[in-house]
Specification:
alpha/beta, OB fold (Dihydrolipoamide Acetyltransferase, E2P)
Length: 449
């Protein structure tokens, strides 16, 4: 019996897919890369983006046609709005939430009964199930990079976002479980580990007095990193500016294993738009956080998320966002044109910014991002840097890797044994969003000769 699983959406869904594969393979199914060979086909979907949901409809339409010629079981799970779940009940054999994953075996044994219990399940029941889900050992998709979920759900209710309706309220995972999983990964040679949550820096706030806060969790990780004597980088995504504390920045500065890279979504550079988005932070607060990062972590790279064309965004409000591109000079910005999502508050408002205006604003911010990324990268030429080699580059005879700041770099080598290991490079050239270097050992040999 073979299975194939398609994962759409963010890193949280990718992490969930690793636990999904464990549960499926415990039932005796074997992975296949070819959908047409599978006896069971599944999708971890994402209601946060309409494009993702469109892909689900395209896939299940094809799969249901295949059922005319073969026995096939289909399922959908992931980050789903209740309205999407109800529609999928008519199309898939099984529809369930990730907290129901441990029960998948019994669902399949009772095949023919489509579950939608999560549509009306009490919050307490969902929270209990997600804690059970976290106990599933992941089927890690890499031997050197891994995700660790530390928190699920969101209490922020940004008006543009559907996550509180797809994943529910914030639930923090046990710090003992998190630290145990991290220690096992490091002991098994993992080099890059990312802590995941919708709002990681609100970790522990739902269990005050019972669980440690986020900065204390990072400190425990840092202490383990020092005592282990092993080299690895720990990242986290995504924090919310509202909960970003100076303690977090101080802890990152104090431990080598805590990577000097931060993803801090700003969404807009205009205070009135931020209020309309219900972001609960203003630009003065965001500016103070960036200033603290620059002072205490001068080598850190900073990534962000931005939405253009939000309902009612004026030319001047957009200009305020353009200005922060110059002020903060982000290393990377994930810029999206606003589109209403069912269930989110803003879906009830008129989407009144024309598409051509949204596209123009997207291009303007992209041009700004490219300009400052190019300047940053060019300033790295001639510097020595440690890189985690992640695989083969598209350019023949080159390997590809990431710096600690998650900048992409390639270098000439056919030594496959370097993949999954750290190596030191000297940066020789820079392009937009990428670097090129050469192994220091080779440079030293040339200099000696």
């Amino acid at each position: 019996m073979r299975y194939h699983l398609i994962t759409l959406g963010c890193q949280m869904n990718k992490s969930d897919s690793e636990r999904t594969r464990t549960v499926i393979e415990r039932m005796g199914f074997v992975w296949t890369d070819r959908e047409e060979e599978a006896n069971m086909l599944g999708i971890l979907a994402c209601s946060v983006r309409q494009k993702s949901i469109d892909k689900v409809y395209s896939r299940i339409s094809k799969w249901n046609r295949w059922k005319k010629d073969k026995s096939l079981l289909t399922f959908v799970s992931g980050c789903l709005l209740p309205s999407d779940k109800e529609k999928f009940l008519k199309l898939f054999d099984l529809v369930f939430t990730m907290d129901e994953l441990p029960e998948l075996d019994s669902m399949i044994r009772q095949y023919g009964i489509v579950t939608a219990a999560s549509l009306s399940a009490p919050a307490e029941s969902q929270q209990a199930r997600i804690r059970e889900f976290w106990k599933v050992t992941p089927h890690y998709s890499s031997s050197f990079e891994a995700f660790i979920p530390i928190q699920n759900g969101c209490d922020k209710f940004c008006t543009f976002c559907a996550v509180p309706y797809t994943r529910g309220r914030e639930v923090s995972r046990s710090s003992d479980e998190i630290l145990k999983e991290l220690r096992q990964l490091v002991d098994n040679g993992y080099k890059s580990i990312t802590l995941l949550g919708q709002n990681v820096n609100s970790y522990g706030l739902d269990k005050r007095g019972v669980e440690i806060p986020f900065h204390a969790l990072l400190e425990k990780i840092g202490e383990f990193g020092e005592s282990s004597g092993k080299e690895f980088w720990v990242y986290f995504t995504s924090p919310h500016p509202r909960d970003m504390s100076t303690e977090v920045i101080d802890v990152i500065a104090g431990y080598e294993c805590l990577a000097k890279q931060l993803h801090l979504p700003v969404q807009s550079g205009d205070d009135k738009v931020l209020i309309k988005m219900n972001r609960n932070h203003n630009m003065d607060r965001y500016r103070n956080i960036i200033r603290s990062i620059r002072e205490k972590l001068p080598e850190a790279t900073i990534f962000t998320d931005i939405i253009v064309g939000f309902t009612g965004e004026t030319d001047q409000q957009f200009e305020n966002t353009r200005k922060i591109m110059e002020e903060f000079r982000f290393n990377m910005a994930y810029i999206a044109m606003y589109s209403p999502r069912p269930g989110a508050t803003s879906s009830r408002w008129e989407d009144d910014i024309p598409m051509d205006v949204k596209k123009e604003r997207l291009q303007i911010l992209t041009d700004e991002l490219v300009k400052y990324n190019r300047i940053y990268n060019q300033n790295l030429i001639g510097k020595k840097i440690t890189v985690l080699v992640t695989g083969h580059d598209r350019k023949s005879g080159y390997l590809r890797g990431l710096t600690e700041g998650r900048l992409i770099i390639r270098f000439p080598s056919n030594n496959q044994s370097l993949i999954g290991r750290f190596t030191d490079l000297q940066i020789n050239s820079a392009a937009d969003f990428s670097l090129e270097g050469e192994k220091l050992a080779i440079i030293e040999e040339i200099n000696e000769s």
